[in-house]
Amino acid sequence: MIEMKNGDYLFAQGHTACAGCGMAITVRHVLEAAGEDTIVVNATGCLEIVSSAYPKSAWEVPYIHCLFENAASVATGVVHSLRAQGNDHTKVIVLGGDGSSYDIGFGALSGMLERNEDVLYICYDNEAYMNTGNQRSGATPFGAWTTTSPVGEAHKGKEQWKKPLIDIVAAHDIPYAATSSIAYPMDVQAKVKKALSKKGSKVLIVYAPCVPGWGIASDKTIEVARLVVETGLWKMLEIEHGKRKVTMKPSQFKPVSEYIATQRRRFKHLTPEMTEHIQKLVDKSWEKEEKLAECFKE
Amino acid sequence: MVVKKTTEGSTAAAEAVCACDPDVVACYPITPSSHVAEHLADLYAEGKLRDYIPVEQEFSSLSAIIGASAAGGRAFTATSSQGLALMHEPVFAAAGMRLPVVMVIGNRSLSAPLSIWNDWQDSISARDSGWIQLYCEQNQEVVDTVPQAFKIAEETMIPVMVCMDGFFLTHAVEPLEIPEKNEVNQFLPKLEMKEKLDASNPISMGEYALPTHYQDFRKDLFDDMMKSADVIKRVAAEYAKIVGREYGDGWLEQYKCEDAEHVLISMGSVVGNIKEAIDKLREKGEKYGVIRIKMYRPFPKEAMRKALEGKKTAGVFEKAIDMGAAGPVYEDVAESLLDAENAPKLSSFIGGMAGRDIKFEDIESMFAKIKDGNKHVEWL
Fold first, then answer.
1. Which terminal CB of chain B, N or C, has fewer other CB atoms within 10 Å?
2. Secondary structure in 3-state letters for chain B
3. How many beta-carbon contacts under 8 Å exist across A and B?
4. B311 to chain A, minimum CA–CA distance in Å?
């Protein structure tokens, strides 16, 4: 069990995130694992808005926000500056949503990984631009309704599959790339700690449901974040210098329809055929995962 | 020890940056400032420069030095044209966050049409961002302005652009005096930021502001920008004492203006041509002079008004255009004459765009035209 010290969080009480916000839970656990000797670099998004309204701040660690698409580059500068000034211990962690990570800041992220900067980049993935009112992102799943992938006669929700960010970041041959889900806080903390034990670029993508965006009850965040793993829609992975490992695999997958049924706001228009299509693609991706596992067998 | 080297403007600028011992340099090459980026990389390879980040685009070079500066380090980048345009967001952010970074601009035109040649449309487009902008006439001045830029930035907590004309300066080879680290040390103390990212004293930077606060941040920056003019003048005088070279008073440089009846006002390397033309035209008895704006932002309004006192006519020559209005520098000069009694008739000339030559005849014709007075947006 993790003992959370009530009233002593590095991401302090008083931030204005929604009740049950997956992002806020993510940040709390990330900082719990990282400790005080940490600098947070934050991309524009919900996290910045709920935590840093001047003159207030929810941050008990040094915090910098600059723009939407440059968190990886700002973090690069921070870590270089620290090392140039003789500080070889303070950890630099980026916290960005899927908008800044999958889309607008993708180039900067790739640049940071190619240079193997000593930074842990954490993406809290809530699968759309939630801060600005639920517009589609590269992380939005197939079929999902968003305000820029609406449902009409001709087009029904997002027509593309989710961008495989974990595979793309891992392809940079970085020391550590991993995924987790906020339903498993011990897994998140363990992966943050493992990542921080390595020098060079690390990426952790945490599945973090958005209560208003997904239309779920505020006490359902964890349940939904668990179902996404149990249905096989979200894989729990660790990829170290290309070596891939599934860190948690349900003994028996639940049907994806169970997960889809939890979010009527995003998926109520899905036809049985669309759900079937999603199920097929998920099954296929796990078949591929089996083959990959063969490649990495010791 | 001062080293005199026959070298290119870009290389010399890079050497001057190195002499300021920055903690972090981040660069992305772009013509015509690529050689600044390249030579800084050379200096890093030789172990003379402590850090160099070869980033993947200009948005990231400025973003990286924003991060480096926020963490308390002295930080530098260089760019031109499209690179500066790509940086537009972090340009505003660096100023708004009050980070004392320095950037050399190898001035170049903006697309479209694509051109690699010199004018000032790039840095003038960044005019309203809250950066101090210093325009140099010659490469020795660039070398001498770089250490001043760090000192000004670190004292005022306002970022500084040192602007040098692409090719005319960046690629010109000449003998230059380049300072060593130990020499600059005495002038430029080690950077000690009062507020920085430090785990032993956590602060939050770059927060968002509601309507109750946002405008106050802008007003503070405006007020401090106005106040920075005095710092710029003082630092220019201080450095002039050390190296024995001065470029006007750090704001304006006046050439043969004392008895001049008609003056041109301009910036950058073209002023060298104008000075030479004036020498020739004075032989014919023409009382001409030139005022060079070194400090474009903040704009030395009072000093400009004073410099123009008693002149019959004046004309602004600039390599930029405020589309749909007039020459941007002309607009500033005109504004500074609003309260002037007997203000000279003021003309506006636009030319030299994307490296188009400004010849002796052009300068002679501008002087001839300003005598008639009030030419608005005359294209050369």
1. N
2. CCEEEEEEHHHHHHHHHHHCCCCEEEECCCCCCHHHHHHHHHHHHCCCCCCCEECCCHHHHHHHHHHHHHCCCCEEEEECHHHHHHCHHHHHHHHHCCCCCEEEEEECCCCCCCCCCCCCHHHHHCHHHCCEEEECCCHHHHHHHHHHHHHHHHHHCCCEEEEEECCCCCCCEEEEEECCHHHHHHHCCCCCCCCCCCCCCCCEECCECCCCCHHHHHHHHHHHHHHHHHHHHHHHHHHHHHHCCCCCCCCEEEECCCCCCEEEEECCCHHHHHHHHHHHHHHCCCCEEEEEECEEECCCHHHHHHHCCCCCEEEEEECCCCCCCCCHHHHHHHHHCCCCCCCCEEEEEECCHHHCCCCHHHHHHHHHHHHHCCCCCEEC
3. 161
4. 47
Does a structural domain hold residue A244? yes
Distance from CA of B18 to the nearest CA of A (A): 14
* β partners of residue A96: A123
Q: Does B37 touch chain A (CB under 8 A)?
A: no
On whether any CB of chain B is under 8 Å from the CB of A104, the answer is no
Q: Is A37 on the interface with B (CB under 8 A)?
A: yes
pLDDT tens for each residue of B283-318: 999 999 999 999 999 999 999 999 999 999 999 999
Domains by residue range for chain B, with CATH: 3-243 (3.40.50.970), 254-379 (3.40.50.920)
Residue A256 lies in a domain: yes
Q: Which residue of A has its CA nearest to B21?
A: A84
> Which of A47, A78, A110 best tests the B interface by mutation, with the highest count of B CBs <10 A?
A78
- Which of A80, A91, A94 should one mutate to test binding to chain B, selecting the residue with the greatest count of B CBs within 10 A? A80
Instruction: Tell me: pLDDT of B375 over 60.
Output: yes
Residue in A63, A75, A111 nearest the CB of B205: A63
| A39, A70, A78: residue with CB nearest B60 | A70
Any domain includes A15: no
Give which of B273, B280, B297 is closest to B351, Cα–Cα.
Answer: B273
Host H or E run for residue A211 = helix A211-214
The model's pTM: 0.97
Put simply, the answer to whether B63 touches A77 (Cβ < 8 Å) is yes
- The C-alpha of A258 sits at a distance from chain B's nearest C-alpha, in angstroms, of 39
Residue of chain A nearest B98, judged by CA positions: A66
Question: pLDDT for B61-73, tens place per residue?
Answer: 999 999 999 999 9
Number of structural domains chain A divides into = 1
- The residues that bridge with A177 in the sheet, in sequence order, are A203, A239
Q: Say if CB B25 and CB B84 are below 8 A apart.
A: no
Cβ within 8 Å, pair B202-A59? yes
Q: Is there a domain that residue A285 lies in? A: yes
Put simply, the answer to whether B208 touches A82 (Cβ < 8 Å) is no
Kindly report, residue by residue over A154-164, the tens digit of the pLDDT: 999 999 999 99
A272: CATH = 3.40.50.970
Q: Is the minimum CB–CB distance between B242 and chain A shorter than 8 Å?
A: no
State ipTM: 0.97
Q: B28 to chain A: nearest residue by CA? A: A111
Residue in B50, B63, B199 nearest the CB of A70: B63
Contacts (Cβ under 8 Å, ≥6 apart) of A206? A26, A30, A122, A123, A124, A125, A179, A180, A181, A182, A188
Identify the domain containing residue A93 by its residue range: 22-295
Q: How far apart are CA B305 and CA B303, in angstroms?
A: 5
Condensed to tens digits (0 to 9), the pLDDT of residues A99-129 reads: 999 999 999 999 999 999 999 999 999 999 9
